[in-house]
Each structure stands twice: as structure tokens, then as C-alpha cells.
Amino acid sequence: AAPSMVDSKTRPGEKKGFVEEMRFAAMRLHTRDQAPKQGQKEAPEQPAEQPLRQWQPTREGYLRFLVESKEVYNTLESIVTDAQHSDYARFQSTGLERSAALAEDIAWMQQEYALPATEPGDDGPGLAYSSLLRELAEKDPPAFLCHFYNIYFAHTAGGRMIGTKVAQMILDSKQLNFYKYDGDYKPMLDGVRQALNDVAEGWTREQKDHCLDETMMSFRYSNGLLQCIAQ
Ligand code: HEM
Q1: Ligand 1 atom 42 nearest Cα
Q2: Most exposed among 8, 194, 206, 222, judged by the fewest C-beta atoms under 10 Å?
Q3: Domains held by the chain: number
Q4: What's the farthest any 2 CA atoms get from each other in the chain?
Q5: What is the rounded CA–CA span in Å between residue 181 and residue 185?
Q6: How far apart are CA 150 and CA 25, in angstroms?
Q7: Ligand 1 pocket check: which of 21, 22, 27, 146 to mutate, most ligand atoms within 8 Å of Cβ?
Q8: Could you read off the pLDDT of 115-159 as tens digits, one per residue?
Q9: Any ligand 1 atom below 6 A from CB of 30
């Protein structure tokens, strides 16, 4: 196995539970510009890692981002519905599901701005991410749950900042359903945190480290999606 990115004896966040370790692993992969207090990464590598103020969003690109993202959320949501591994059943109906909201936003953007209907691209980031998620969901639950955590939690943090900023730039400040939850999302996050902590209790330290190590892949694929907007 590849060496773990966290090799000290006590892992950062460990005392608060495994999700706090996942959060630490994620925060250090932000650039300083994205999360000034905790981000450690100096130089952006992908366009989506450039400072938000340098993004040049277009309506077409944003619509593509929504379409590609919907593919990913559809996949995540069908994986937990099927619950091939019984642990996944705990992640059904969390309230954080995004596919239905995305379907509405996509239809709205097409109509409002007279944009053509689009499908996820054959070589696009949505299908690429979906196939990785399906494979991990089957063979590697700790890695799959790393992606699950990062996708849903990132969306309530940086995702919402992006949504607000981009809406100001190109959607006349219209807030999309993608960024709205049915009620306060904080208790929803708490529920998922609890479920993740419970599931991780059944993992060996090696499986936990393997889950943390997957964080980098999660950033790579999510940045691939964000690239549709950043240009
Ligand atoms: C949290 C910004 C991309 C995963 C955060 C926070 C900010 C932020 C400001 C809150 C920090 C805090 O609570 O102190 C951004 C920006 C991004 C971006 C501006 C891109 C332009 C990503 C990506 C991922 C990610 C690509 C992973 C796929 C997370 C996670 C959290 C977080 C897991 C913790 C959320 C929580 O604990 O509730 N991000 N982020 N972020 N971000 Fe990002």
C-alpha cells in the first residue's frame, strides 16, 4: 500500500472523531486563497484552484457544470439507494441530496437564457467521476465514503461561496436550488457526520488512513467539475 499522508502517531483531529480527521485532510488541500486560515497549498495547479475573483464564468460553462455535477449526484444517490454494502443504507435520505434540485436548475437555466439542452459529455468530468465512484463503491468502501463526505460537505462550504459569487457575475444574483436545502443543512451534516463516525469505528487504522489518503483524488475530480465554470 502507498504510504499514508498522515504518519504521526496521533492524527490531527483524531480525538474528535474520524470525520474531524477527514476535515483536516481536506482543509490542508485547499489553497491559501480558498481557505486563508487552514489552506496549505501554495500554488494552484488546475484552473479551478485559481482565486475565485479570477474566474471567468459564462452561462454556458455554468450550465455544463450543473449538468456534469448532476451526473455525479445521480450516481452517489443511486449507490446509497442500492446499498450494495449495508453501511451505505445509513446515507439514504440525508436531506443533502442534490439531483432533484439540479434537474430544476438545469431546466431553469435553459429556459431563462435560451440555452440548448445538454447531456454530460462522453469525455466529461461527470461520467469520469461517476465511473470512479461506482468502482470504489463496490470494491473499496473507505475510499468511496471519502468522496461521499467531500462532495456533500464541500458543497455546503466552498460550493455555496462559489454559487453566490457566480450568480452575482452571470445570473443576476439568482440563487439556484442547488444551493438551497429544505431547512437548515447543519443538522443534516451532523447526521452524516454521526453515520460516518459510526461506520469508521468498524475500520482498522489502516483502512482509516486509506480513506484519508483518497482525499486528494476527491479534490482532483471535484476540481475537474469546477473547471467547467472557472474556464
Ligand atoms: C470547507 C472554500 C474547494 C472540501 C471549506 C471552507 C471554505 C472552503 C472557506 C470552510 C473552512 C472553515 O470551515 O473554516 C473552498 C473554495 C473552493 C473549495 C473557495 C474552490 C474554489 C473544495 C474542494 C473540496 C473541498 C474541491 C473537496 C472535494 C471541503 C471540505 C470542507 C471545506 C470537506 C469542510 C466542510 C465542513 O467541515 O463542513 N472550503 N473550498 N473544498 N471544503 Fe472547500
Answers
A1: 154
A2: 8
A3: 1
A4: 56
A5: 6
A6: 10
A7: 27
A8: 998 999 999 999 999 999 999 999 999 999 999 999 999 999 999
A9: yes
